[in-house]
Amino acid sequence: MDPTTNLSEPMDIQETLERLRGEAPDRIERVESAEALEDLAAELTGKRSPIAAGRRSLGSAPPEQRRDLGRAINDVAAELDALIDARRSSLEAAEAADALAADRVDVTLPGRAQPRGTIHVIQQVMDEIVDIFVAMGYTAATGPEVETEFYNFTALNFPVAHPTRLESDTLYLDYGDDPEGVLLRTHTSPMQARYMEQHEPPVYLVVPGRVFRRDPVDSTHSPVFHQVEGLAVDSDITFGDLKGVLDHFAREFLGPDITTKFIPHHFPFTEPSAEMHVYAHGRWMELIGCGMVHPAVFEAVGYDPNDVTGFAFGMGADRLAMVRHGITDLRHLFDPDRRILEQYR
Q1: What mean pLDDT is predicted for residues 296-301?
Q2: Closest by alpha carbon to 158, among 300, 63, 38?
């Protein structure tokens, strides 16, 4: 059917409408895509369609026939629009069903599980150490990693000329105008002074944290490592209490069958001082530095050394992790290779 047919006579309009009624439904039903349907709709009822041509020719029809012809044109147009809408809905439903079928997911298939993460082995060890001491009545606390010389050295009875204060050992920061100097803490011990300044005795404290020293990276050293500090201050604490607490800790952490011994040593902030060694993996190894708190430390924080006594200890969490798991190279603990880290779930 030529959509440009010139309909000028009422008879032509009637014939065209009858042909549309007879042919259009079958053509609409045979359309197989929404795009083709839109093209056919434009041909049947659009601006250049026979319907549009019939409406334009109404002006030349006899006045007494215009109303009936106009109604007939509108009726046919409405019938065709209804058929087109119905076919459009059917095609869209079919296309949606095809899209769903193409995107179908078999929910009975096993899922793609993401690799399960875990807490890093060093954090596991620090958490366990803290738990053991908290079970003995200690309080856990953390302190700043950026410290002043006063808390890191002076308050802990380090002499002014002590070699640890040198830049060859300690990482100083260019920060502010503090005459004491600002540095990355070399141990977690500054929290001893900070905590005692703010709390009256008795004090039972355990402090986990990260520390920094100017050490080369090798199998047993790193410029960044982890410590757990401990402090007990009360009215009548003895070295025997220190030995009993640390021996209990070692057995809780490494097992009930280990042997411990204490060897004299020197730390500026304890007197007397000692190292606790344990027999594990067929050999003796140093595990914890400890001693009775030096009276100068009590004086620096406002405690009267005649009224209190106490002990302090510090241990490397990295070293304890190595002893626990039989690791021979410290660098393995900082290696991001999952094949290494997954062994310590």
Answers
A1: 95
A2: 300
* Torsion 335-285-271-235 (CA) sign: positive
What CA–CA distance (Å, rounded) separates 233 from 137? 13
Angle at CA of residue 211, ends 323 and 120, nearest 5°: 50
E strands, the chain, where?
A: 139-140, 146-148, 172-173, 182-184, 203-212, 224-234, 259-267, 270-280, 283-293, 309-316
Q: Residue 331: is it exposed, middle or buried by C-beta count within 10 angstroms (0-12/13-18/19+)?
A: middle
Give tens-digit pLDDT for 123-166: 999 999 999 999 999 999 999 999 999 999 999 999 998 999 99
Instruction: Please tell me the pTM assigned to this model.
Output: 0.67
Q: What is the pLDDT of residues 166-181, one digit of tens each?
A: 988 999 998 877 666 8
Residue 9 has pLDDT above 60, yes or no: no
For residues 197 and 189, what is the distance between their CA atoms, to the nearest angstrom? 13
Task: Tell me the CB-side half-sphere exposure of residue 292, using CA atoms within 13 A.
Answer: 14
Query: Who's near 22: CB < 8 A, 6+ residues apart?
Result: none
- Measured on CA atoms in the order 149, 151, 152, 157, is the torsion positive or negative? positive
Residue 194 has which token pair?
Answer: 């900070």
CA–CA distance, 148 with 68 (Å, rounded to integer): 102
Bridge partners of residue 227, in order along the sequence? 209, 316
Q: Nearest Cα to 293, choosing from 282, 307, 279?
A: 307
Measured CA to CA in angstroms, residue 276 lies from 133, 242, 249, 259, 284 at distances of 17, 10, 11, 10, 10
User: Residue 48 contacts by C-beta under 8 Å, 6 or more apart in sequence?
Assistant: 3, 4, 42
